[in-house]
Amino acid sequence: MFLAPSRLKDHWREQRLFLARSIAGAMLMIFLTSAVVLRLINLQVVHYEHFSDLSQGNRVRIEALPPTRGLIRDSKGVLLAENLPSYQLEMIPEQVADVDETLEKLTAMNLVREQDRERIDQDLRRHPRFRPTALRYQMTDEEVARFAVARQRFPGVDVQAGLIRNYPYGPVAVHALGYVGAVSQTDLERLDAADYAGTTHTGKVGVERAEEATLHGSVGHRQVLVNAEGRILQEIERSPPDPGRDVTLTLDLQLQLASESALGDRRGAIVALDPANGHVLSLVSQPGYDPNLFSIGISTSDYTALRDDPDVPLFNRALRGVYPPGSTIKPVVGLAGLHYGAVSPWQRVYCLGYYTLPGHSHRYRDWKKEGHGPVDLNGAIAQSCDVYFYDLAVKLGIDNLQSFLGAFGFGARTGIDIPSEKAGTLPSREWKRARFARREDQTWYPGETVITGIGQGYLEVTPLQLAQMTATIAARGARFRPMIVAARVDRATGEAETLAPEAIPPIEVTDDSYWDQVFQDMTDVVHGERGTARRIGLDAPYRIAGKTGTAQVFTIAQGEEYEEDEVDERLRHHALFIAFAPAEAPRIAVAVIVENGGSGSGAAAPVARLVLDNYLLRSDQ
Amino acid sequence: MMLDEPLDRPKPISVAQRLLAGLHLDGPLLMALLTVCGLGLFVLYSAGGQNTDLIVRQGVRIAVASVTMLVIAQIHPKFLRLWAPWLFLGGIILLVLVLVMGETGKGAQRWLDVGIVRFQPSEIMKLAVPMMAAWYLHERPLPPTLRETLTVLLLLSMMPAALIARQPDLGTALLIAASGVLVILLAGMSMRLILAFGALALAAAPLLWMNMHAYQRQRVLTFLNPESDPLGSGYHIIQSKIAIGSGGVFGKGWLNGTQAQLEFLPERATDFIFAVLGEEFGLLGVVTLLVLYLLIIVRGLYIASQAQDTFGRLLSGSISLTFFVYVFVNTGMVTGLLPVVGVPLPLVSYGGTSMVTLMAGFGMLMSVHTHRKLIPQ
Fold first, then answer.
1. Per-residue burial over B11-38, b = 16 or more CB atoms within 10 Å of its CB, e = otherwise
2. Which of chain B's residues have a Cβ under 8 Å away from the Cβ of A9?
3. I need a surface site. Which of A68, A116, B12, B305 has the fewest CB within 10 A?
4. pLDDT tens sequence across A580-618
5. How far is A11 from chain B (nearest CA, A)?
6. Positions of E strands within chain B
7. Cis before residue B143, ω within 30 degrees of 0?
């Protein structure tokens, strides 16, 4: 490499150059440090008095102003969740000398309820530092006055006027709406702590949780002068919070109320969807609970009672309950048979009342002991002949069956816009290999294909999946992600963000007329003279397409009889019914499950009829 | 009769001096560093709400950092020079990895999860950048040419800084850019170029503004007018000024700072610990700490001036002056002279990897100083 003579390394010169630069650096450093020191002198000597005043006598405190939570309305604009003014008693434990003594005294004054003590203790243990803990929600005017008189004796305790979440319909639609509860430390790890500086409650489940970001809004603040006791002397500056936006649901309160009363006090679930867009019209899981309990701070005993109730009211059956679908999947299995060419509509199978695999002696029984005789697909669906579908399932094979059922969404979450739904189980060869540890359990047996054909065995679905399946049939294969949040509305500007339905890959069958076949078959379930649900079709002013289902809770040994009266109530069969109507141009698809209801036709179908009546015969529809 | 003592017998040295020399440590530097660390623990005890657990953890960190320093001091500067390019290259690869797949902590992507340890590759770059720049200029005659200057400025300083700024971590990016720029300044970049680049930087400011994250812009705006955002970043500055100002000349006394103890002051154990010192120990306390810092830096510059090759000289000089940048940016931020940039108070703020990196840097200084070929004094 060519180097000019002047570019040779001259160590002596380089060292001098470096020294000069270091000295320049040191000078600059001393200059900058002097600037800092001058600044410190300015703060600590010149303006000492000013800052000393600020820090000692009167302190500037920044207070967060929590935003007002958005409201929740049903599709017709009826309020489902609102905010009510309320006085609450709050304590900042860090400012209280003896927390136990203070609580003791407040309890003696009847301002803190004895049954809340345990809950308060829990809140105190996990409350974020220097944040108020609520001792009592919804104080009466008399109680507020009583505390005001004694206020001097309770430093660190104060009455705060605030808004409390109220659900005017109580437990109605609770499993869709969810509830709000006190912000916990765990919540703060998920949420932006600064934005929640003044917020006491946050959505815990359901729409309240899913739409938290919409409903919450963003925090405001004010700068106040406080004296040494923390009492506010003067407000210096204020920037108001941005209230949360309102949420409009696809839910129809009328239908929801009708659905809940149709189910009565039986355990079960109902999901009604609009087949044209996946809107959830009603979502029921019974028993429910009163979400207002949570917003006013549920007492430990109330919570324990809810948690330990054998009917599990806190459990969302519609999204998380997994049930064998039973015969309700027969229309889909029939459609699979047509699609794969395993069967043609006029082909008949002779039903003897039981089915056996070639070379096996095990009898797979039909629900009708004497058999249905010769049945084609239409008859098999209308009369719910098990033998026909045992045979069809074997002809299809588990692989085809699994892939067709999978296309209808079984074994996967529907993606509904509220959290915590379950995926259920769609069995397949791979699923079994992954599910079981023992070699012999990992093999798929032909017998398992047989019972999958009538929706028994490993297959497990949620009521929501079942409703989606029904809606898919009603829409002739078009599928939508179920949605419950229809729009987000800014109350101040009136600006609405309407959420569009989300289409998901449709079901495509080899011949479009197969849909007509399934429509006809399902209509005959209700309106055919031998249909299993003909009782609900007798006086219907519109035509219903449906399918009954009965799911075994426990297995009956070979050769034994199932006697409804003899088995324990909780071991009785689950009753299922799916339906859409009007059959000519479906507007609603519904799935009903009545736990331990006995039979689909007896227990679940009448419930579905009431739901459909409300939606289709209502004067405003 | 005993033999006459040789005339060139070296001056007797104490046991401590022999020990320090044997361990390749520099006495004055070590003393100053440990004093600052010790003082830091004191302040931290108060700032952290008298949490002994916090002190123990910080103590362990200081111990780990000191051991790191000791180990690095044993390495001959020749090896530091040979490793420089590899360290730099490795650091760049890790930075890119962080951007692609890093774990997000507190809204910024800075951490890389390597099985058991999570670490910030930007810490490596704090040392790798000055090492690389010094390595690059080592064999070349100085002052550097325009091309060499540009290489160091753009490729070796701005490029890694830009990668870190994208994480986004403006404070660290600033420190790393500074460490590279300082190398070229110390190497003798010509005055005309310095002025030209200064002008260019001013012109580029609007461009930088356009590329900043919203929160970074907010910080600059807040710096210009702290009252505009009293609940957000402005709150830090308001409370920090109150803390320092109310400390006066002598301070409110250890554990007696109301701003700190009543938790008005945010980030008091970390970035804003200087305000706690100001509140509880007053002007005397903060000036003492600043003097200790200056002693460390002046000693570092002395070591640099005594170094026997370009690499050692430039590396030591850059590490020392970068340390000053730390001090200035943090104290400037806490006193409201500069915008809020996340730079901790070196050796005092509670927290992680920067302590180890700083002490590792001082280990390099000691290595440079104690591995000289003996020259007649």
1. eeeeeeeeebeeebbbeebbebbebbbe
2. 139-142
3. B12
4. 989 999 999 999 999 998 888 889 999 999 999 999 998
5. 8
6. 103-105, 108-114, 117-119
7. yes
